[in-house]
Amino acid sequence: MKIKISVIIPIxxxxxxLQECLDTVKNQTLREIEIICVNDGSQDSSEEIIRxxxxxxxxxxxxxxxxxxxxxxxNAAIESALGEFVIFMDPDDWYxxxxxxxxxxxxxxEQGVLICGGSFSELNENGLVTEFSGVRKKxxxxxxxxxxxxxxxxxxxYHRFIYNTDFLRENDxxxxxxxxxxxxxxxxxxxxxxxxxxxxKKITYCYRVGHQNIHWSEKRLMDLxxxxxxxxxxxxxEGLEELHKITIERLGKNYLNMYAGxxxxxxxxxxxxxxxxxxxxxxxLIASDEIAVRYVNVSADIIHQALLLSKQKREAEVQKLQEQxxxxxxxYNHILKSKSFRFGRLITYVPRKLRDFMKKIRAGS
Length: 365
Prior knowledge:
The protein has helices at residues 18-26, 46-56, 70-80, 100-111, 149-152, 165-170, 183-194, 218-238, 241-262, 268-279, 290-337, 346-349, 352-364, and strands at 5-11, 33-40, 60-65, 85-88, 115-124, 127-129, 145-148, 161-164, 196-208. Helix 8 (218-238) packs antiparallel against helix 9 (241-262) and helix 10 packs antiparallel against helix 11. It is globular and about 85 Å long. Strand 1 (5-11), helix 1 and strand 2 form a beta-alpha-beta unit. Strands 1, 2, 3, 4, 5, 6, 7, 8 and 9 form a nine-stranded mixed β-sheet that branches. It is 51% helix and 16% strand.
């Protein structure tokens, strides 16, 4: 059987929703599919659920790995996929109708495109949302037809599209190894290289929100910033003015407060990353957008404050080390002058911590 679409599902501790998700994939009218489930080190019954489905449906396949993150899981599946196209499903989401994959594949083949997608929907505490406002209006398409990415310039909702598998592999289009915000850079790179896609008014994906609890560690904050940096860089290099503005405004509106609050304990790597993001902003592209310009100015102030705090922190650390070394020298000299001191017993007499500092002193002399 020729496999037309490989459905890739990375899974980590998602037993609550996984069976519902799998049912909506298995029930698709397009039968020539494979369902690649990547168990990313789950500690619940997720793998057992997958194996039960494998017994019921030969199209369900399992890749098991230790926990390496969703990006690694998706990339591993892309490498093993046998389908002409791939599509990505999260295990807590679902397809709204049984003919989604059939419509996506049929239109992609008839139109001769590398990417084909439909409209988006999300389930939150207020119910199912199918209409969006502001920049989020781009989650939905008003009509079917070819769309050039330069006229679209959006970076969210990659799940609702199928992607030609050879196209991804040949152009090295994979998910960057971030634990947050790895999807938009993948989507933007694919769209830039494909140049165009076929859009469908039909809703092709249901996204569940509101049940995830995110602990914003420095690692998560930095990976989020790396994803934003990638999109700012790509949009700037390609002259994608609208995407450049969207990404900068998103950084300013949604995340600047978090970064400002993390500065006091931020590592030098974190601060260097902030500076790198700033370096990719094309001020000419956003000159006509007052909101984006304002966020860039605020961002510049935050970076200046971060550099100042970093300098003060480094100076304080150097001063503390110097004081510790002076204290060690005094204790060392006191030991040498002691009448009861025997040079041959220095190793056993001097505490380990003190010996370490003595080595530093000797190395610096």
